[in-house]
Specification:
With about 150 residues, the protein is mainly alpha-helical. The protein is built from six helices and four strands. The longest helix is centred in the last third of the chain and has 16 residues.
């Protein structure tokens, strides 16, 4: 969607990516406080607990969170929040960061017949690298601090 040139358009992030990032930032805010229940995160972040359960499975598989069962159970970040980037989270939940225009049904187009003469591919590749660099440049620790400061001013 291009929209009216005077109307800003949004960069699309899926619900999976948004909710997963909110979960990870919440866990970073509570780093060092023991296991955090998904119920507590769901209440604080106003998110559906059942959906968080789906997301945490992908985050565990990617080695970003650890879980503990039973009384006092819940989840923690698998490593220090300063060692987990927003890019790690996005890749765990969404897959590789690639220009959507150069993908077909979620898979990268390999040997595209237009690639040699594509006048716009450089734009999408540059955008991809810029987005990846921005995401990889933000850690959960930084995001947890910035959101804590923002909440303090509300």
């Amino acid at each position: 969607m291009l929209g009216n040139p005077t109307t800003p358009t949004a960069f699309h992030v899926s619900t999976r990516g948004e909710y997963g990032m909110r979960l990870m930032v919440d866990l970073a805010r509570h780093w060092g406080q023991g296991s955090i229940s998904l119920h507590a995160v769901a209440q604080r972040e106003d998110l559906p607990e059942a959906y968080l359960e789906q997301l945490v499975a992908s985050l565990r598989k990617a080695g970003l969170v650890s879980g503990k069962r039973g009384a006092g159970g819940g989840y923690t970040l698998a490593r220090d929040p300063a060692q987990i980037t927003a890019g790690d989270v996005v890749r765990a939940l969404e897959g590789p960061i690639e220009p959507q225009i150069c993908t077909a049904e979620g898979d990268p187009v390999v040997n595209c017949i237009r690639e040699q003469n594509c006048g716009t591919r450089a734009v999408w590749v540059k955008l991809q690298s810029t987005i990846a660099a921005a995401l990889d440049g933000m850690t959960m620790a930084e995001l947890a601090k910035s959101t804590s400061r923002e909440r303090a001013h509300v």
